[in-house]
Amino acid sequence: MTRFKPFATFFSALFLILVPFASDALAKDRKESQKDEFRELLSESDTLMMDREFDRAMEKSLAALDIAETSGNKLGKAEAMCSISKIDIACSRDEHAWEYASQAEAVARSAHSNELVARALVLKAQICLFAEISEDFNRNDEGLGYVDEAIRLSGENISSDRAMAFYVRSRILVNKNRWRDKNIDRSLYRQAEQALMSGDVVAAAAGDVALQKKAVAYWMRFYRQGGRIREARDFCLEHLESLEEADYLTAYQLCDHLTVLSLELDDSQAAAQYHQNCVYFMQKYITQKADKDLQEMETKYETALKQQTIRRRGYQLISAVLALALLVILSILLVVRNQRIARQKEELRRQNQSKEELLAFISKDFNNPFNAQENAIRKFVEDCAKLSPDEVKARCDEFICGAKALSDDVAQYVYNIIVSQRAAAKELELSEREVEIIRLSAKGMSAAQIAEQLFLSTRTVSNHKQNIYSKMDVKSNAEMISKAREAGIVKD
Question: Could you tell me which residues come within 8 angstroms of residue 100 by beta carbon, excluding any fewer than 6 positions away?
Fold first, then answer.
């Protein structure tokens, strides 16, 4: 035994030396795995947010925040909080968004990350931007303070965050002129243009195509505030020509702008053509969205089939082994297996039926709610020579009003297709105005934005919401939207 003692001592010492290295290697692998999972969750959240699936996006961001807190990653925690605040802003949960943006700013400052501090400040500036509901009640100056600090902190970095800071600055400057459109402050107007141009340069350098598309709406408001209608039309045409073929939603939005701009320029023929294009692109977008849902359903269907095949083979192997041991147990297992297969087949049958119903839904010849206005514009063009200048101007004003309501027409178009929404609204004793406010809230609009779109006061919208809460037995905007989705009043 004495001969083996040196060897035992050597291997014991070697073991004690290698164990810490092995532990460090495992900890490092675990940390890298958590980091990869964190990045994947935030990436999925961004993708879901672009598709306006805010509830699923929030689940991903909250999961990322949990990983960051568990691993003690301060920068990750600040980044996840910024993501949550961004989703809350899109859902008009301003108080919740402000809380997370403020916490993200505090954590980022403690971690000495100028990049994340700037991102949190831009989010706070956006919340200040949406707070404006009247000339006397606004937070434009506060928002400018946040966004200017964000631009200063970002230095000369080429990033989407810096580009967004410039765009938000331009929106706030345009907002400061909002209540004096007839006598705008030209110095603010020039500053807004400079901010827009800077945002375009940085967004292009960062390669953020989605942000560049979003900036089109900022430019439209800027051009129209300054009465630069022809420049706005040329701007839309330039972007329309550079669009990808399958980007139907952006094409629809640009044609919507062009319809209104053409009517303001008394070009009724162009307005009729752009309006027709609007209808075409919206129909293509609806079909594209349905195709995407159908593809997801087919993928789930194929996965279920594969899983059923794997389970069936497993059951067969288990049955063959157990048959050698005990016939009674085999009989019991066969009964259980057949019951499970029957349930799986029933589930697959329901999924297949849902797929066929969706195909039938897509192939329906929808009644086009835009034909009336299109025919009216065409008839106006034919009768134009017979009308007086005052009559021509009056008719153009009517078409402008109709074009400006195009987005609501599309929402009503989809709403009329899904008849179950009416039944759900009737069951909850909701009025048409209350259903409309629920739909706009689900689109991410704040009470002030809803009031502006429906030509109501903010107090009236708040009273409507309180009535809705009472009828639906909910206590918050999020619960209202969630319950409306469950009832079929709002569709994702």
Answer: 81, 82, 84, 85, 88
CA angle 197, 201, 207 (to 5 degrees): 140
CB 33 within 8 Å of CB 40? no
Residues whose CB falls within 8 Å of the CB of residue 463, separated by 6 or more in sequence, listed in order: none
Any idea what DSSP says for residue 182?
G
- Within 226-247, residue ranges assigned H as helices are 229-241
- Cα–Cα separations (whole angstroms), residue 229 to 95, 149, 257, 304, 476: 37, 33, 11, 55, 41
Query: For residue 378, how many other CB atoms are within 10 A of its CB?
Result: 15
**Residue ranges of domains in the chain, CATH in brackets:** 34-243 (1.25.40.10), 418-492 (1.10.10.10)
Can you tell me whether residue 157 is helix, strand or coil?
Answer: coil
Q: Compute the distance between CA of residue 288 and CA of residue 243 in angstroms, rounded to an integer.
A: 16
Q: DSSP letter at 158?
A: -
Q: Rounded to whole angstroms, what are the CA distances from 19 to 14, 26, 30, 107, 388?
A: 9, 11, 16, 35, 94
Residues in Cβ contact with 23 at an 8 Å cutoff, skipping those fewer than 6 apart: none
Which residue from 404, 485, 385, 400 is spatially nearest to 438, judged by alpha carbons? 485
pLDDT at 160: 87
Dig out the tokens for 114 from the structure: 């100028």
Rounded-to-integer distance, Cα 304 and Cα 320, Å: 24
The residue ranges of the chain whose pLDDT is under 70 are: 1-29, 132-136, 181, 293, 296, 351-390, 392-393, 396-397, 399-424, 492
Q: Under a CB-based contact definition with an 8 Å cutoff, are residues 163 and 203 in contact?
A: yes
pLDDT tens sequence across 267-280? 889 889 989 988 98
255 residue type, one letter: C
Distance from the first to the final alpha carbon of the chain: 76
Please give the single-letter amino acid code of residue 200.
D
